[in-house]
Amino acid sequence: MSAIVIALSASGAAAPTESSATLSDLMTRLQLQHAKLWFSGKLSNWSLANYEIDQIDANLEATSRLLATPSQVDRTREQIRAVRQALQSNDGPAFMASYASLTNECNGCHRSSGYAWIVMQIPLTLPVPNQLFVDQVSEGRAIANASCGTCHVVADVAKEAPAFRPAPPPFLEIVSRPSFSAEGLRHFLTSGHRRLGPDQAMPNPRLSESQVEAVVAYLETLRAAPRR
Questions:
Q1: Residue 206 in this model has a pLDDT that exceeds 50
Q2: Predicted model pTM
Q3: How far apart are CA 197 and CA 164, in angstroms?
Q4: Kind and range of the H or E run holding 172
């Protein structure tokens, strides 16, 4: 039944290796993690996907301690290693192939253990409605480059050369200001004015709410990053 490993993973925050967890508890957790892994990998959110595969691995280890024959999980571990390798390479097609193999291995284990009626599949819908599976920071960086990069230096990259002279302040300068705040940035980017900034020289980027949040996430991460 260890193949349920990737099959079921539900209460995400609970410690996956707690000694009181039953096999059913672990399978339920693994079911949710299985679904979260798919959407994070499919949407190239590699950090989240690596987190989820770590959670699956830990729950699988806990599962093996509850089985009469712990070696049952070895083949599943092989599939997990293949998924992990794809994630570390940021290889989308390899991730999808290895994920399918992992799911098939779970179902094979179910059949061999007398649980053929428990069948896993690649998820069709989001497992939870209140979590974003795209890499919000990467999206924010892309939006900032597309909407702001013509004038601002978006990141600390020497090859960037804004077209304006004198150039508007670089993003690193903006996020270093004592006055910088996420709420202030939201208000600034959602302003209804046609022109923004002290000289009214900045066109309104006209971003959607989700795009604004992505840019906010990117700038907050940029502010928190250690300076090189």
A1: yes
A2: 0.72
A3: 15
A4: helix 171-176
